[in-house]
Amino acid sequence: MGLFAPTRQETVEDQRLYLDGRLREIACLDCLAKVKVKKNSEHHTAVQWTDVALGHCQEFARLSGQPGGRPVYETCSRLMASIDRAVAEGELEVGAQDGY
Amino acid sequence: MSTATTEARALDPGVAPARYARGWHCLGLADTFRDGKPHRINAFERKLVVWAGADDKLNVLDGYCRHMGGDLTQGEIKGDNIACPFHDWRWGGDGKCKEIPYARRVPMRARTQRFETAERNGQLFIWHDPEGSAADLDILPPELPDVLTDAYTDWSWHTKEINGSHCRELIDNVADMAHFYYVHFAFPTDFRNVFEGHTATQYMSSKGRPDMGQGGYGDENSTLKSVATYFGPAYMINWLEVDYKGFVTEVILINCHLPTSPSSFTLQYGISVKKPEGLDEKTVQYIAERYTESFGTGFLQDVAIWENKAPVQNPLLCEEDGPVYQLRRWYEQFYVDQAEIKPEMVDRFEFEVDTTKANEYWHAEVAENLRRRADEDAATSVEA
Ligand code: FES
Ligand SMILES: [Fe+2]
What we know:
By secondary structure, chain A is an alpha+beta fold.
């Protein structure tokens, strides 16, 4: 299917590792959005949204109301605060495994 | 020995896709096609003919006449139509044969493949979809306000054929933090990606390396704030704010490509510079040319890598690398039928790279390079 099909079984496992490995579900403390997060260090963050989560986010809804629509670079500060909180409370582990 | 060992890793070259991406593809500056002649464009492993009719509208058809296969790119424009050099069948921009001068009537089935066209920011786009869907005007790249007015320099446009790589190599750059240091001679200080819908964006701040003294990203006197967004599979707008010794210039860089085969593509890039206020036209042109040159150099730096690297379907990543796998997952949406697009290919994904450790190491390396060079200079001046 689609783009560059892997020729090795190991590649499929790599794809799983890099795409889904260690993603933890984090709930926003201010809305109903639930996203998946991975954090390798204090500065590194990966956030996987879903359509449903995006629909719940008030901050994004507000940004979408602006003239010109929601700028794609804007992130939700409330969600970011929720992630920081999850780290502080030990719910979200920070650190890479074997370099990723 | 109790040291854990792992097997040597193999590179998975993958199997290249059997189709070309769905989406808007830029053919170049629109006006270059308005010279009263038909133009040939190679794309998607075929030949296309581009022409502007008497009505000034730009049209794109498959390059071969459906009568006996004449090469329409060698034909002639007659009125609004393209006339085949072989037997003068006249084809309209809607793909229909409008006239066969020597025949009583045109066969009903005389219809060829056309590509829907659009013009944006002075550039010509065509919609390509192996499924044959209608062009999606909602996902055309955005209008750039003020570009093509007096506030910006005219597009400086360049074309380069790349052989020996699939165009995906070019896309991978979006998520590649570390190559900016090694290939483009700059310290990437901040690096972030957002993929959402049909767009993939890279946010980067960088500062030139003082040990290379090259143009482009690698000038030690310049810092750069860059936002680069792919709108669909083949067209990127890069908004750049270049601070050169405190003098800030806004530059818009277009980076687009047309795949020509599974292992080649035509790279096109264009630059328009916001004219700094208070400068005369000559100085403004000079500045624009310098930026054109230096970003052109930047592309050539990438090309040298692409032409020699192996295709890798299973890149091995470290913590400081960007989200290559997620980027490729995003890119895949353009290679599957529209009904096969999975949510995760288009769902919003944010990724911020931690560049702390990398920049610590790079600054130390550069300091060492500068020290070594100073020693060498001192030695030569003693000899002299
Ligand atoms: S092949 Fe084109 S007119 Fe005959
Ligand atoms: Fe690059």
